[in-house]
Amino acid sequence: MRKKIIAGNWKMNKTPGETVALINELKPLVANDEVDVVFCVPAISIIPAMEAAKGSNISIGAENMYFEESGAYTGEIAPNMLTDVGVKYVIIGHSERREYFAETDETVNKKVLKAFEHGITPIICCGETLTQREQGITIDWIRQQIKVAFLNVTAEQAKTAVIAYEPIWAIGTGKTATSDQAEEVCAAIRSCIAEIYDDATAEEIRIQYGGSVNAKNAAELFAKADIDGGLVGGASLKPEFGNIVNYNK
Ligand code: PGA
Hints:
This protein is of the alpha/beta class. It has twelve helices and eight strands. The longest helix is centred in the last third of the chain and has 18 residues, at 179-196. The relative contact order is 0.16. The model has no long low-confidence stretch (mean pLDDT 98).
């Protein structure tokens, strides 16, 4: 039985000071030991977020990470900078990073391998555009993203990974995929993992849905057989996130 994982993606929101205030506000609301709760925050807020979340069920994650160990990469964050302060999760290949910061399936793969090397769990994002959905190539597209993201990843590592299926047309638009649309793709991702590895790996890997998840649609989405939680943007910055995390109460 896979444990659900519900992660907030704060994107470029909240100063370090505001982060502490928001975590203090949300802490009591997201108390649910039946799910893993992760807040992925901007790099500069990771340390104060860790302090504020101490003693709670909240894990703090990063929103990005570079694939080199150290060196002349101005502005980047190295994996050991994250592990040094106790980061356990990192979002890799969010569609906004692909769109605005030139990330590709290949750089996603490098980052995924580097995260595993350092014992950080990657939350690996994939998703199609509206045009691709209308062209009927959604599943082919997602399968390609997954196959490249997992190149040279071992089955043991893959079992611990988190995949976030986020249709780009549903992100920040208020247009959620129906639970059947989301389940169709999450099931296809699980089959793809079974093809690359084996059934046991596919059974263990956790697959989230993301894209306008809110307190109203969370329970229906998370009830689907292949949806193991959510990656939540806008609603993760509000008390509503407590209702999403407690979707089963
Ligand atoms: P949203 O963002 O919930 O605001 O649609 C999701 C995401 O980008 O991870």
